[in-house]
Amino acid sequence: MFRSLFRRFKNGEPLLFGAFIAIAAVAVVLITPPGGGAAAQGWVQTPQGPLGAADRDLLVKVRLAGLWEIPSGQQAQQKAASKRVKEVGMHLMTDHLKLDEEVRALAAKLNVPLPDQPNADQQGWMAQLAAVKPGAEYDLLFAQLLRAAHGKVFVTVAGVRSGTRNDLVRTFAQRAVEVVMKHMTLLESTGLVDHSDLPEPPMPSPAPPVSALDTPVRRENA
Q: Rounded to whole angstroms, how far apart are CA atoms 53 and 42?
């Protein structure tokens, strides 16, 4: 088709060359991952679709979450005063053990390196929990720290679930969204979460102006 259009352009049909350029541009858009230069943006082609920086970041953050939530959930079994906090800690621990196994298998398949220890913030939260004596104060700190952390990671997993181009990552992100939502609900069920201390939701973007082309056209009766 491209050769035919180009031949007709050479024979004196310049208007058709515009169609040739438009079709070629569409083809490039369809086969190139979003964001411009694929290599510059960190895109890698896989049999399951393009793998981008956000996809890799999701796997890293899920791994990091497990590295501190698994020991924290286990710690809650000894230090929590509330039966409900102990139950929630057990859910967090068991769910993240399963999720950690899944993320490590997926990362190995997609050749994504994962960390082996919590990051600096997470190590700080673990130190805070370790420093608090068993009892009600521990319960309060556990619920608040874990709920705030889940709110942060939820933004990542939901964003990747919404826009990833990779089939394997999309399936895993769906699972991660469900787990994080479950954990936020469980932590809130303790009655110890102070929502006023959580980060506020992002401000909505300004609504785009209504184009004249989008305005319905009135039809006058004849």
A: 6
Amino acid present at 43? W
Coil, strand or helix: which one is 200?
Answer: coil
Quote the CA–CA distance of 169 and 159 in Å, as a whole number: 12
Q: To the nearest 10°, the Cα dihedral for 101, 105, 108, 111?
A: -100
Could you report the per-residue pLDDT of 138-175, keeping only the tens digit for each? 999 999 999 999 999 999 999 999 999 999 999 999 99
Helices 83-110 + 136-163 axis angle, to 10? 30
The Cα-based distances of 113 to 28, 31, 108, 200 in angstroms read: 30, 27, 8, 32
H or E stretch including 143?
Answer: helix 136-163
The label of the residue with tokens 């959930």 reads: 73
The number of C-alpha atoms within 13 Å of 194 and in the hemisphere containing its C-beta is 8
Positive or negative, the CA dihedral 127, 129, 132, 134 is negative
Location of structure tokens 């899944």: 102
Question: Are the CB atoms for 192 and 97 separated by under 8 Å?
Answer: no
Tokens of 197: 């201390």
Provide the token pair at 68: 């501190």
Q: What is the pTM of this model?
A: 0.74
